[in-house]
Amino acid sequence: MTYIKMPQYDIFIEKNGLLNLPKYIADVYTYHDIYIVTDETVYELYGKKIENILVTHKVFFVVVKPGEKSKSLDTYHQVVKELVQKGMRRNHLLIALGGGVVGDLTGFVASTIFRGVPFVQIPTTLLAQVDSSVGGKVGIDLEEGKNLVGSFYNPLFVLIDPEFLKTLSKREYANGLAEMIKAGLIGDKKLYHHLLSHDLVTEEEITMAIQVKRAVVLVDPYDKKERMFLNFGHTFGHAIEKKHHYESYKHGEAISYGMLFALQVGIKYHETKQELYDEVKELLLARGLVKEPLLKMEDYIREIQSDKKFLANGLNFIIVDRIGDAKIVPLKESDFL
Ligand SMILES: NC(=O)c1ccc[n+]([C@@H]2O[C@H](COP(=O)([O-])OP(=O)(O)OC[C@H]3O[C@@H](n4cnc5c(N)ncnc54)[C@H](O)[C@@H]3O)[C@@H](O)[C@H]2O)c1
Prior knowledge:
Largest sheet: 7 strands, mixed
Bound molecules: nicotinamide-adenine-dinucleotide
Radius of gyration: 20 Å
CATH superfamily of the largest domain: Dehydroquinate synthase-like - alpha domain
Shape: globular
Structural class: alpha/beta
CATH topology of the largest domain: Dehydroquinate synthase-like, alpha domain
Order of helices and strands: EEHEHEHEHEHEEEHHHHHHHHEE
Number of domains: 2
Helix content: 40-55%
Strand content: 15-25%
Number of strands: 11
Distance between the termini: 49 Å
Strand order of the largest sheet: 1-2-9-6-5-3-4
């Protein structure tokens, strides 16, 4: 078992750690009733198992549809109503069991229902384990855009059990891998080299990726400045997702192209080496995150130009010159043309 200490909570990374859930809960929670929000897929796969593990508790499930559409005001409303109807009280524990969608939605519910209830994250996708369950950001989307309503709300603990990853589809697995490759590129050379050599991640690599995010979150808990480093590849990644209406590319695939574009920008204006671009491209191709023929940067510049902040003040862009070392550079519109 590996254990990472955040200022207000602990992250436990443990193979088969789910079996020890009652022990982890007993350290922070004394009541009998536990409420679990999950999605249909995760409920099918793990609902019974969790019920058996938490046999000494009374467990109430609220199950939402899988996918980003559940990070909505409608689903938020449905979940809080169902929790209240099932008898939840303000000292009862709420668990998010699922990927980033369930984690973000349930965390937001936890931060608002009864003005805040005790909350635990059990992330079940690779992306949620290395990224969304760490850092305290919770929230939902509006039709006008993603993550427009939310808050910062810390769990009592995060339990990461790599065994969950065995049932993930190849595409979902790769989706999380993209964020790990990003973490390696911006903050941990050793992690990057591990990821170059094999495609199935270990507990050690999950821990390394979390440590990269932890370091940034600790200096910038409320996302004012330094968390921006985590956006390497995301400026173009978001542009790609937006242009294709969040349908053709998964987030990890879009940021993979975004990382390649960011490396190209680095080559053009800074000291990023062509060999690094070539190596990352091979890695992303091998993991199925990008495909030949690659998307072209110029096709997405208009999406970035439509950002008013960019037009008025230039754009803070994240460059990786050397593996494990990122920097913020202000770029003008003309720098991309
Ligand atoms: N809060 C943050 O800091 C933060 C950071 C990054 C991303 N996010 C958010 O995370 C969300 C994406 O998360 P995601 O990629 O985990 O998507 P997701 O939650 O939609 O999960 C992806 C799919 O995998 C399924 N699934 C989950 N666990 C499984 C398992 N163990 N076995 C089989 N199938 C399983 C789900 O049912 C779903 O269909 C986005 O909404 C994004 O905005 C938040």
